[in-house]
Give the backbone structure.
Amino acid sequence: MSKDISFRLIERCLIKVSGDDAESFLQSLVTQDVAGLQPGKLLYGCLLTPQGRFLHDFFIFKENAEFFLECETQRRDDLIRRLKIFKLRSKVAIEETPLAVYAGQQGTFRDPRLEALGCRSYLPAHTDAAPATDYKDLRIHLGVPEGSIDIKPEIDTLADINLDYLHGVSWTKGCFVGQEVAARMENRGLVKKRMVIVSGDRLSAGDALTQEGHAVGEVRSVNVTRSEGLAILKLAALKETVPLMQPAGTIVKARLPDWLDIENT
């Protein structure tokens, strides 16, 4: 990814959460610690179900006492609806904003998930930018999921998709929706599957991955050449010497992202 190129991420957008209770409102809901969030700082977090399952991922920053959440464009209305369910009598306003989302090696905020992903910026939608295909391919190559294209709402847990290693949750902030279940899985070592990087020929999103005819995983998204992708895979399958297969009958190789240090867990 060139330092001189920014990519417009049309699949991502911004909403604004403002009002006297905005900070306490978000602090009680999201997986990240937003208390005392300073200008110039970008956080990455999620909204979970009470059962600890993924609902939405977002980046969070603050300007002039207002919080901005970068979320999925196609699922923005669902996020706003879910936040309003918790609003009750809180002095909070939740609304859309016109700014667009950009990614590149230079920008306003350093991506908090992984340094190699560069920066994110929020600018007027007419700002010139390159198509985001190269950015998605980089993200896949690094093994970083983003949004419902990679993460299944109400099914995946934080650990399934490695967000516990991508600075997507604060275990010290106190309660958030789904915190009890998420913390129990983390502390008791109950994680049985993880998101991995797969490589092969003509990979397709949604394809089942098998070993000796038994389903052990699923491809979630693939790069432009369909040679590399992200997949959910049972950890036990990584230890087997039996080949991992896709429906076309060809062998698929799988590996953990380099930054995911779980070999000894």
The CA atoms of residues 34 and 231 lie 30 Å apart.
